[in-house]
Amino acid sequence: MGVTIQIPTPLRRFTGERAEVQVEGGTVEEALSHLTDQYPALKRHLFTDDGALRSFVNIFLNDEDVRQRQSQATPVTAGDTLFIIPSIAGGAPIATLRQGAAARDTAALPQLSPAEIRHYSRHLIMPEVGTTGQRKLKAARVLTIGAGGLGSPLGLYLAAAGVGTLGLVDFDVVDESNLHRQVLFGRASVGRPKIEAAAERLRDLNPHIKIVPHETRLDSSNALDLFKDYDVIVDGTDNFPTRYLVNDACVLTGKPNVYGSIFRFEGQVSIFWGARGPCYRCLFPEPPPPGLVPSCAEGGVLGVLPGIIGSLQANEVIKLIVGVGEPLIGRLVLFDALKMRFRELKLHKDPRCPICSEHPTQHELIDYEQFCGIGPEETVEAGWEISVEELKQRLDELAGGDEGRPITLLDVRNPQEWEIASLPGAKLIPLHELQDRLGELDTAATLAVFCHHGPRSMRAVHLLRQMGFARAVNVAGGIDAWSRRVDPSVPEY
């Protein structure tokens, strides 16, 4: 029996979709070396060119971060399990979360009305909550970032539980594709601002609380001002720039960050609180390169998964406020819906953390788009893009006998997306396979590259241009724009 290495979902495409691999080795380094010998494409995603483990990848031996032991030199024995954890993504009563004597004095907590007593009766008869706990909930101010997959169960359960002031940050509109997981919304909400539809639903659920909508994009210019008036911040975001922004703003304002992330069938939950334990940067000092970790829009997510993870986050918020149980400070819970398995990993504060250590080097918010590598490389160069209308016209001309240069349609989506909708004559090479399959393409050809909406194909065009494919162009808006504006018979998804 060797060492088992658990492969997270985003990296399984490099292991033939295997969730775990058996290897030999006497140390973590040897075990990982045997893993990458079996699956060479995995190596560049785990290690830098000089052989160092990438900063956005953590290795846990059983439940312990190997950085707290001997790093890659940590010994392993038969029967051990190594977990690859990449980025995706005692009680603390309200008196410790809020400032001011009134919040610390139980007698000064707001009273419950007869209507509230009826509403919260099942809480009130629990000795762990009781009248005092419910009054703490009424006094609490919680800010949720995002009103989507995670924000839906968060909003519903925090509102139902009686959190007195519930702030919502979102700037998106409800799309039909949201409805399989964002249970705050129904078909009547499609096209409406999420913040508007969410506030209406939550006020109907519990008229005894105050809903504060913040219809804005969270960024470095407004995060500190937004956070200062709340006791707990709940991260329901779906992108790395905002995730790091939320973490840093929480550290700088001293707020607990109730974290959750989801992808396909897997989720993570923790509480990052720099004043009491590790922050998000202690676990992931740096983000992965843009495009390396697929988003839910690219990789999908089981509809029920955000309900599970968001409910766990809501549970942690309520525990923090009421002051019961053991909050997930210094612990990371992993959930695998396919195996119906929870796993808990121990987290440690990084003494070199740039923002939450005793001697931080960062004292203010930064440009998080730039920090996460989202910059000039994502921009559209002149002549590098074609509209779906222009592409349709060119294809029609070629079909009519025009002797111009032929066009190769290159689809860089995933096979599952191809099964939903595809364009006749297109060649499928998923983006993560493109670099290894360049030999299948003609450098002299005109390559019209498309994905679902455009971002992945734009990254593909940058790569192709760098590798000598001077005629590669991005199809703006992707197959979604083709379906909407050229051929409605192509299914939208």
Strand content: 15-25%
- Rg is 25 Å
Distance, first to last CA? 45 Å
In this structure, how is the largest beta sheet organized?
8 strands, mixed
Question: What general form does the structure show?
Answer: globular
How many distinct beta strands?
18
As residue ranges, the low-confidence spans are: 90-96, 98-104
Helix content: 25-40%
Widest sheet: strand ordering: 8-7-6-9-10-11-12-13
Mean pLDDT: 91
Structural class: alpha/beta
Number of helices in the DSSP assignment = 20
Describe the structure.
The protein has 493 residues and is of the alpha/beta class. It has helices at residues 28-38, 43-46, 94-97, 101-104, 114-119, 121-124, 130-139, 151-161, 194-205, 223-227, 240-253, 280-283, 296-299, 305-322, 368-371, 388-399, 415-420, 431-434, 455-466, 478-485; strands at residues 3-6, 20-23, 57-61, 64-65, 81-86, 141-145, 165-169, 210-214, 232-235, 257-263, 266-272, 331-336, 341-346, 385-386, 407-411, 427-428, 446-450, 472-475. β7, α9 and β8 form a beta-alpha-beta unit. α8 packs parallel to α9 (194-205). Mean pLDDT is 91; it is low at 90-96 and 98-104.
